[in-house]
Amino acid sequence: MEDAVRRARAGDAEAFEVLYRAHAPRVYAVCLRMSGDAVQARELLQDVFVKAWEKLSAFRGDSAFGSWVHRIAVNTVLMDRRLAARRAEDRLEDAGGDERPLPERAAGDPTQAVDLERAIAALPPMARQVLVLHDIEGFDHAEVGGLLGIAEGTSKAHLFRARRLLRKALER
Amino acid sequence: MRDDIELKRALDALPREIEPPHDEWPAIRARIGTRRVPLLRIAALLTLLAISAAALLVARRDAGRWLIAGRDGERPFAAGERVVTGSGTARLTVGSIGTVDVDPQTSAELLEASWSSHRLALRVGTIHARIEAPPRLFIVETPAGTAVDLGCVYTLEVDSAGRSRIHVTAGWVSFEERGQSALIPAGMRAVMRPGGRLGLPVRDSAPNELLSAVALFDSLSSPAAIAAITAAARREDAVTLWHLAGRTRGTDREAVVDRLTALVPPPGEIRRQALLDGDARAMELYWTRLPGTLPIIPEWRQSLWRLWLRVAG
After folding, report:
1. Which of A66, A67, A118, B47 is deepest in the core (most CB within 10 A)?
2. Could you say which of A41, A50, A116 has the minimum Cβ distance to residue B28?
């Protein structure tokens, strides 16, 4: 993999494809959970790897490529979410309802994990982002606050709310 | 799912990887193009260009700046200013290309000072120029003509009658007036008179007979002087004969050319008739064969001319 990184840095697109194949599932998971939308997640996945390609010369190899591209993924999604938050739809969602309409249970998907994914996707944007970053991606509240531009206490409040909404959704 | 612990367990159990439903690589591949140009390299290149441009501007500014150093210390010397030494001396710094030492009893005026041209007018007196620059960048005007530096060290003296005496010690100088020119290589000197009369260059080591004959020719251009020069010239004096050939006609030229070709055989492709006709290409090509000369023209043009002469001959 180090060789692929080295060749990709030199401009080798085929080597970069190797890196994409290895890391796309992890990046897609972040994009999907934080955006809550499969179509947006695909676009974000593309954006993340295009940015990674453009910034490869700045990647010094101090961390693993996977960690580096994961950080790009988080930042890309958050940037996209900030733009989306300017739209009235997002403002209404955050200000008004406690939750989005829960997606219909897909036929043949009776497992708890699928229910949980659907419930996460239905969370209000900020609550969803805090929950994904904290409970799934492993960031602490200080880091989450830094990433989202909110106070640590606000992050905790959003997490509390997200968990409550999740439990409520899963109890239905 | 009753409490946070149960929820946490469920969240921890979620897969950290989800296979994208579609292969996004073709779209990514199309967006990244064929080759990535690292931003750092672009930035480095732009920085280098900026530094080079700044350095060029500074160099150009300095290259056109003259200084004068004399009794009162050193100060800038601008176009339009004069230096009149009286009993003292002065040193002029010619941008970044060299120096001009000014002897006592000398008067000179700086006509032009820029990175692309330096022009000094020597009214009377003596200067010693030491220039390291591309040809024709440093020019000294005198009452008898213009000394064009071709990369050299020389002394130029103008007397009260306007006669200019030039002595070249390194490189060479082209002395030009009214469309004529005299090429003076290192180790040679010449006297130029007002009125477009360019003297013949003569070697420092020339015998007295030749010096006298050249002085006579410079004054009278008589057949006797021509005969005396051809008789006294040695192989080392071929440059003098080469110039003489260009200033004679008819049988006088024949005698000069025959003597010159006897002392220094021309390249095989140059015919005697071309020299008698004063063919410029043949003369310039012949010049490169003469002792103590530098090429007037670049090597590639010499090659072309040789080919042309062969075809034309």
Report:
1. A118
2. A50
Q: A1-86 sits in which CATH class? A: mainly alpha
Asked if A45 and B24 come within 8 Å (Cβ–Cβ), the reply is: yes
The answer to whether the CB of B147 falls within 8 A of the CB of B166 is yes
Does position B234 have pLDDT exceeding 90, yes or no? yes
Instruction: Judge if pTM exceeds 0.80.
Output: no
Chosen for mutation from A7, A9, A50 (greatest number of chain B CBs closer than 10 Å) is: A50
> Do the chains contact at A166 and B7, CB–CB below 8 Å?
yes
Cβ count within 10 A of residue B109: 16
Residues 6+ apart with CB under 8 A from A57: A9, B36, B38, B39, B40, B41
Q: For the domain covering A88-172, report its CATH number.
A: 1.10.10.10
Q: What is the CATH number of the domain that holds B143?
A: 2.60.120.1440
Closest CA–CA distance from residue B35 to any residue of chain A (Å): 5
Of B100, B108, B66, B67, the residue nearest B84 (C-alpha): B108
Q: Does B14 touch chain A (CB under 8 A)?
A: yes
